Amino acid sequence: MRKTAGLSALIAAASLSLAACNDRAATGSAELVTEAQPAAAAHDSTQASKGADPFWNNATIYFMLPDRFHNGNPENDLSYGRKDDAAHLRGFHGGDLRGVIQKLEEGYFSDLGVDAIWMSPVIENVHGYDEGDKRTYAFHGYWPKDWTTVDANFGSEADLAELIQVAHSKGVRILMDVIINHTGPVTSEDPLWPSDWVRAAPQCDWSSFAQNVQCALTDNLPDILTESEEPVALPPQLTEKWQREGRLEQEQAELDAFFERTGYPRAPKYYVIKWLTDWVREYGVDGFRVDTVKHVEPEVWAVLKKEASLALSEWKAANAEKKLDDREFFMVGEVYHFGVKDFANSDGRLYDFGDRKVDFFDHGFDSLINMGFAAHAADDMETIFSDYSSILHDGPLDGVGVLNYLGSHDDHHSFDRERKQVKTAALKLMLAPGAAQIYYGDEVARPMIDEQAYGDASMRVPMNWASLEQARTQEILHHWQKLGQFRKSHLSVGAGEHQRISETPYIFSRTLNEGGVEDRVMVALDQPAGEKIVSVSGVFAEGTLVRDYYSGTEARVEDGALVFDTRFDLLLLGEPQQSQLSAAAH
User: Which residue positions does the secretion signal occupy (predicted)?
Assistant: First the structure.
């Protein structure tokens, strides 16, 4: 798959070493399928019973469209003959992997307390444009053409390898955004895949399980036949492309080794699973954010998780000096309309298709994106925090994870798109139980509305780096940074149990005691500027040194109370900790 140095020598060895895996127990949660069998046979129901990893339940995950983030290499702005003739905000703007590397090296994500970066897909996308929603190129990355290489607009595989290495050196994990559901649209440059690989019709009507899964997501996204177990040949557009690039034999040899080792039939989904998990095995990708989860048979995701888990364990065994820890592979899914508090089609852990309910946590997912948070963010903090805590600790989502967000690239109901509540919105997201997703620019109030843009392009405005020259933007960024550092230093913020201490002024605590981790914090809002005296008995013991992560000052508990003199109206209280606490192995 990769074109990096030394790979060809590994291919021959892979056939032997990977085949040998059939004769031994797989590392971690990865159990190999040794005979040809459907995806359902690979299902491992132990995943959901293991309990959630406090690290991931508290993680701050930064989501970006690389094209809209930062342009580190202007020379790759228009690759494959793409042109600058798209509709407003519907073409490539130049952001790339080199730009992300530069911001990693500058410490931008470290200052923000980011635990992981999730980038929209960076694999090679269709070269042409689609006219379905005005002239649009694949700047967003969700129109696959070739799962085995990086899109030249984003850079090279060497750039991706460097990005992962730099991120790991900063203690930041990398989540790849992955797609199995569909290929990119047919364009003048990109032909339809063969009929034994995809269907172009009928279009889904969302009325049942089958009408979400065995149908085309939209009229311009050919649907991969993920239900099929029938062997198929490689599409001619891939074999011809790889032949031109001089790597056809390499790709075929790797596929032969994969199918010999696993025993899977050469059905479309298994090809894609092989291609996706290669990124893990070769570069040490820490996890996947999975796109369009509910539009694929849930058993397929269990196979993806199984193969990805094996791939990461093998990468860590071969790169002991580069790994962050022994944490297992992480997988978070986008199940559109799934959310906490039975949001939309949700029923506790289940997603209701109308004629069938599915527990995606029981098919390989450690966490699901909580699409309900954007709606719940209109509630007061205590309602959000107490409800979420009870659901995640004693309720239907106990033992699994959710990823909360205020806004995203395709949710037209994102919270506070007008950016009128930037500080309050940050408090609600970053202090809520569960993991937190920062959508690029939340931390600097990047515009989420562009009146000239059509549809979801309005939410994909380029990152407004120039605004950092303004004092107001700096103030907003510092607010997010303090909240992020608080979360990074204390797992209990997102993974702990919530308890309200005082209604007015609003004060609460979070306590975590699981997975070998003990941690507690306290948050006091609506405080007066200047001297503040807060009773902390029952949270911090007498004589304990406590830091206010908002002002950076410290005090010791005396007579059951803490005294701080700061100009801010809130306190983020916890014992002084180094950030590596959140990176400790679960």
Answer: 1-19
Burial class (CB in 10 A: 0-12, 13-18, 19+), 529: exposed
C-alpha span between 144 and 167 (Å, rounded): 25
At residue 50, the pLDDT reads 59
Cα(575)–Cα(583) distance, integer angstroms:
17
Q: What fold characterizes domain 61-192+282-495?
A: TIM Barrel (3.20.20)
Segment holding 63, helix H or strand E: strand 60-64
Q: Concatenate the DSSP letters of all residues of 121-174 into one string.
A: --EEE-SS-B-BTBSB-STTS-SEEEEEEE-TTT--HHHHHHHHHHHHHTT-EE
CB atoms within 10 A of CB 221: 25
Residue numbers annotated as active site: 291, 334
- Judged by DSSP in three states, 454 sits in coil
Helix, strand, or coil here: 458? Answer: helix
Q: How far is CA 191 from the centre of its chain?
A: 30
If we measure between CA atoms, which residue out of 549, 538, 553 comes closest to residue 578? 549
Give me the average pLDDT of each 10-residue run along the chain (586 residues): 48 37 34 34 41 93 98 97 98 98 98 98 98 96 98 98 98 98 98 98 96 96 98 98 98 98 98 98 98 98 98 97 96 98 97 98 98 98 98 96 97 96 98 98 98 97 97 98 98 98 98 90 97 97 98 98 98 81 34
Q: Is 196 helix (H, G, I), strand (E, B) or coil?
A: coil
